[in-house]
Design goal:
The chain is of the alpha/beta class. Helices cover 25% and strands 18% of the residues. The chain has a six-stranded mixed beta sheet. It has a five-stranded mixed beta sheet with strand order 1-5-6-7-8. Helix 1 packs parallel to helix 2 and helix 3 packs across helix 4.
């Protein structure tokens, strides 16, 4: 059976190593002259992962596109090199009858679309797929919803970024946005056990030399010093610049054309709620990259190849 969110051999969860803003200068690079700054940039090596990896950008409640895309991933997987089982960081098999690929979702799963709860419910079907090891990363919507449910905010940021659509789709009166305690109670009732799924999402994932997170984190900060909030929400500078340590960044920014400049930074957002298009980035063990696409109109799998 596939596994979901947790520490596993061959990859690591980058959690909050220090409070957001602790010991940082205004530019977010750390104290002047400290060991928190990175050395001059190094040339980017090709992507390197111990087993095939697929990463999907924000789903935003579009459960039909998610199911269609996962089906295409499963059809594509047998053609991938070294698809014989998950590998650890040394390249050794992690055990028999293991999944053969990692599947990473970059957050913003439910709010903003038509079927938010259905997206959360279909996760169980993906987990049951024996070929895939699933990791759900936290996006801004999950981050802000969890803060609302914990009583840490009034939920206005979450409502503005897709929360209203989630309330409408689940039958909750949007006017409750002006009464946070009642709103929390209604959302908790609708979510039920799904709340544990939201709260269990890590902020990032490192596989080989590929860093996955919704916001991309701070390019100028060592990975071990990244704080969870920046990994989820981003550093506030738009598209993250390439890192100086040779680690690739895969984030939820505008979709990157694999045929154009891309060294070090790959975005996977397609505006799924409006464009009715969802893509998965495929990373092969030989460094190859490709895009698989699902769109509103069923069609044969489309794969964009790049060296």
């Amino acid at each position: 059976m596939a596994t979901i969110t947790g520490l596993k051999r061959g990859w690591s969860w980058l959690s909050q190593a220090r409070p957001a803003g602790a010991g940082e200068e205004a530019d977010g690079t750390g104290p002047a002259g400290s060991a928190g700054t990175l050395p001059p940039p190094k040339p980017f090596a090709p992507p390197h992962v111990p087993n095939p990896v697929y990463a999907i950008g924000p789903v935003r409640g579009e459960v039909g596109l998610l199911r269609q895309l996962v089906a295409r991933i499963l059809r594509d997987l047998p053609r991938r090199p070294s698809g014989l089982g998950l590998r650890d960081t040394t390249g050794a098999p992690v055990g028999r009858r293991q999944p053969v690929a990692d599947l990473v979702l970059l957050g913003n799963l439910a709010a903003g679309g038509r079927d938010g709860l259905a997206v959360l419910d279909c996760i169980a079907d993906i987990v049951a797929e024996p070929s895939l090891r699933l990791t759900l990363l936290r996006g801004p919507q999950e981050w802000r919803l969890c803060r609302l449910l914990a009583g840490e905010c009034d939920g206005q940021d979450w409502l503005r970024e897709g929360g209203i659509s989630f309330l409408t789709a689940t039958g909750i009166d949007p006017r409750l946005g002006g009464a946070p305690p009642r709103l929390r109670a209604e959302i908790e009732s609708v979510l039920g056990p799904r709340r544990a799924l939201l709260e269990g999402m890590p902020p990032s994932l490192l596989i080989g030399n590929m860093l996955f997170s919704h916001g991309g984190g701070q390019a100028a900060a060592p990975i071990e010093d990244q704080d969870a909030e920046t990994l989820v929400l981003g550093a506030g500078i738009g598209r993250p610049p390439p890192r100086a340590d040779g680690i690739w960044t895969v984030h939820a920014g505008p979709l990157t054309d694999l045929g154009g400049p891309r060294a070090g930074v790959l975005g996977l957002c397609t505006g799924v709620h409006y464009a009715q298009r969802l893509v998965a980035l495929r990373i092969d063990t030989d460094g190859g990259l490709g895009l698989l696409e699902a769109s509103e109109a069923p069609a044969a799998p489309q794969v964009q190849e790049a060296g």
